[in-house]
Description:
The complex is a heterodimer of chains A (203) and B (200).
Chain A: H1 3-20, H2 33-41, E1 46-47, H3 49-57, E2 63-67, H4 71-76, E3 82-84, H5 87-92, H6 96-99, E4 105-109, H7 114-125, E5 131-134, H8 137-146, H9 157-177, H10 181-199
Parallel strand pairs in A: 1-5, 2-3, 2-4, 4-5
Helix pairs in contact in A: 2-7, 3-9
Chain B: H1 12-32, H2 38-46, H3 51-72, H4 88-105, H5 109-117, H6 121-148, H7 158-162, H8 166-190
Helix pairs in contact in B: 1-5, 2-4, 3-8, 5-6
Amino acid sequence: METGRKICLLLILLSLILAxxxxxxxxxxxxxxxxxxxxxxxxxxxxxVDQVAEYxxxxxxxxxxxxxxxxxxxxxxxxxxxxxxxxxxxxxxxxDIWLGNKDTKSIFYSDNDPEQSFxxxxxxxxxxxxxxxxxGGAGEWVRTIMETRFTGERITARENALFxxxxxxxxxxxxxxxxxxxxxxxxxxxxxxxxxxxxxxxx
Amino acid sequence: xxxLSSYFIFPEWLNMLTAFLIGTAFGFALEQAGFSSSRKxxxxxxxxxxxxxxxxxxxxxVALIGSQFLGYLGILNLNQVYVNEFYVASSIIGxxxxxxxxxxxxxxxxxxxxxxxxxxxDAMVFVAGGFAGAFLFTETYPLIEKLATSGYRGPVKIxxxxxxxxxxxxxxxxxxxxxxxxxxxxxERKFARPEITSEL
Lengths: 203, 200
């Protein structure tokens, strides 16, 4: 048999194996580049730490805080209600596991490095439009929620509500992060487990 | 086409060096395979030499099968591979213009540069024509922008739009390619012309 025929046969054989493998169809970026960029750069996709704190204090179940840092950093400073999905995991696995629920707002944050913006572009590009970032990231959370104190003479009703939310969110943060390491690890593990169980659906 | 990694930021010179090395290897392979002769591309049109079809289709199939396997083994993340956007009108019009240019010039852009590198005068004119076309396109872009960007379909893949699994689509395309190669060989026998490259 001549070489050309042999190569043809080999390629058909290999593609036959591929046809039998359980390959999942990869998702494509469906957003038009300049529309995607405009969407990502607009103020609507970025939430302030105060907005996030309000969601946390209200225990709003329509949001999902996603911490993109490495597990060690996440364990050291955990914002209440956040789940840890390191950035490398987010982009290397099927994001539908975490972002598939269209009614839930996914809010990304990290140490305010480009990662949270990359994650936003990635999620929005794949069509998960209910995605946001927490502007300033984890550092801004500590600065605004934990360290800012009211210094004026007269407090307005709005400021009062704002500082009350910060105080309560701060308390939740301190309580969670002052748990002994073993307890905290157990707590985070249980959250991970329940998330996994929910992902399974009716299986 | 892309940076080496979307996670680590490599210096620009490394991206450029990689592109240079791959480009050199590609040009070398084209020249070695005889693609710097415009008879190869013209032969495809007249049916007496279908090497172009066989080589480029085989390259596409090998890349397709290879990337699917690498994706399955977890070595390559196909989610991060850039997929060109599909604009219906410009694909059709651009395809016709490119095809006409191929058959009139006897080169495609890659083989044109390959032939230029060995000093072929027709290739020099061909590449100059390519640059002139690119210049004209850029200068007149505001006039044709509406047409060029009409029918946007996003970076769709064929298997996604017809609802086939990537594996099955690969199999169908490979079988179709094999069938096409058979037809090409029949055409080569029917339209055979004497080999004159050595006399030229």
